[in-house]
Amino acid sequence: MFDFLKRQFRKVIQWENVDPEVIVWKYPLEDREEFMRNSELVVREGQRAMFIKEGQLADVFDPGTYKLDDIKNIPILTALYNWKYAWESPYTGDIYFISTKQFIDQKWGTRNPVMMRDKDFGMIRFRAYGTYTFSVARPTTAMTELFGSTDSLKVADVSNQFKSIVCSTLSNVVAESKIAALDLAANYDDLSRAALEKLKIYFDNYGIEVKNFYIENISLPEEVEKMLDKRTNVGIMSDSMQGYAQMETLGAIRDAAKNPGGLASAGIGLGAGLGMGKIFADNMGGTPVTGSKTFIKCSKCGAKVEEDAKFCPECGQKMEEEDGEPCPKCGANVPAGAKFCPECGQAMQVVCSKCGAKLKAGAKFCPECGNKL
Q1: Closest CA to 178 of 163, 166, 190, 168
Q2: Considering the chain, what percentage of its residues have pLDDT values greater than 70?
Q3: Regarding beta strands 64-67 and 22-26, do their DSSP bridges make them parallel or antiparallel, or are they unpaired?
Q4: What is the DSSP string of 143-188?
Q5: What confidence tier does 200 reach under pLDDT thresholds 50, 70, 90?
Q6: Are the C-beta atoms of 36 and 80 separated by less than 8 Å?
Q7: How far, in Å, CA of 23 to CA of 145, rounded?
Q8: pTM of the model
Q9: If DSSP codes are grouped into helix, strand and coil, which group holds residue 105?
Q10: Most buried residue, 66, 178, 230, 280, by most Cβ within 10 Å?
C-alpha cells in the first residue's frame, strides 16, 4: 500500500543534468508508476520537456514550473485525452527532457584525403579539420529524426553522422569556390562562412542549429608541399623556367657529389661539370638571360644588346655575327659557307694552281702540296 501511494503522489518531476554530453534524457518511471494531479514539473533553463502519450507527442514545455493539476498548463493533453476528467485516472505517458544548450568545440576532420582540381597543380588531395557548435532548435523534429524512443542520447551517438555531413559540405564548398591551393589558407574565413550557410540547411532537417563553424587547417599532400617549397626557391633565384632548371641541376650535382665515388660514380662526370660551369657562367655575366630573350654584351660600351640585333642601341657599334669569318680584304664578317664577301665581293675561297685544292682566301701556302700562292 505504501509503494502504491508513493507512486500516486509524486511531487516533483525534473532533470538535474550532470553530464554535459547528454542531449536527451527520458524521465525514468518505475513499474506502473503514474503522474497524478499533485505532480509538479520543473523545466530548467537550457532545457525543454516533452510529454509523450502512446508514442504521440502531446505537449512541449519551456523553462518554468508547472502544476499538473492546472489544465490550462496542458491544453493539448486536455484536448487529446480529456484531462478535465482524467484526474480521477493517472497520466501514464513518458516525459523527455531535451538539453537546448550549445554543445561547443565539436571536432571534425576529413577521414580520407579529398580530391580537388587546382589550376596550378591539376588534381590534388587535401585534408582539413576544425570545430563547430550546435544546439537543439526544434525538439519535436529532433525527437522524430534523431532519438525516437531511446532513453538517452549523447553527443557521441550522433558525432559520426554530423562529422560526415560537415566534411561532405566542406568538400563541396572548396570545390565550388575554385580557390587555388596556394590561396586556401588566406580564405579560411570565407570558406567557413560559406560552409556554415549550407550546414544550417542540412542540420535543420534534424531539428539542429549549427551556431558556428571554423576551419583550423587545410593541409596538402607532402609531395605538393615540397613542390611549393621548390617554387618559392625558384622565385628567389629567377622568374623564369631557366631558374628552376638551374636549381634542379645544382641539386642533382650536390646529391651526386655525396656518393662515395663523387660525380664520376653517378655517371655524370665531365658532362655535369660542364653543365655546372655553364650555369655559373650564365649567372655570373657570361650571357645574361632575362625572361625568354637572350642578350650579349657590346664589345665597345658593354651595354646589353639583344642577340639578333645588328647594332648596339647605346653606341651604334656594329654587332659581330656569332658564325662566319672576317673578309681578308675589307674585314667584314662573312656568314659561314658564303663564297664571296657581301660587302666588297672578295672571293672567300681560292684554288691551288698546282694541286687544285680549295683554300680559304688569304692563305699563303697550299696545305696539301706546299705550293706558294
Answers
A1: 190
A2: 68
A3: unpaired
A4: IIIIITT-SEEEHHHHHHHHHHHHHHHHHHHHHHHT--GGGSGGGH
A5: very high
A6: no
A7: 14
A8: 0.56
A9: strand
A10: 66
> Which residues, in sequence order, are bridge partners of residue 208?
136
173 CB-contact burial (10 Å; exposed 0-12 / middle 13-18 / buried 19+): buried
| 82-106: burial string, b at 16+ Cβ within 10 Å, e else | ebeeeeeebbebbbbbbbbeebeeb
Number of separate helices (H) and strands (E) present in the chain: 10, 19
Q: Cell triple for residue 326?
A: 672576317
**Cα-to-chain-centroid distance, residue 167:** 13
SS3 sequence of 291-318: CCEEEEECCCCCCEEECCCCECCCCCCE
Angle at 69 between CA 84 and CA 99, to 5 degrees: 115
Which tens digits make up the pLDDT trace of 252-298? Answer: 766 766 666 655 554 555 455 555 555 555 554 444 444 456 777 77
Q: What residues contact residue 225 under an 8 Å CB cut-off, 6+ apart?
A: 219
Question: Of 221, 191, 231, which is closest to residue 124 (Cα–Cα)?
Answer: 221
Question: Which helix H or strand E contains 223, and what residues bound it?
Answer: helix 222-237
Digit-coded pLDDT (tens) for 304-323: 888 777 778 888 777 765 45
Written as nine digits, the cell of 100 is 537546448
For 191, the grid coordinates are 570558406
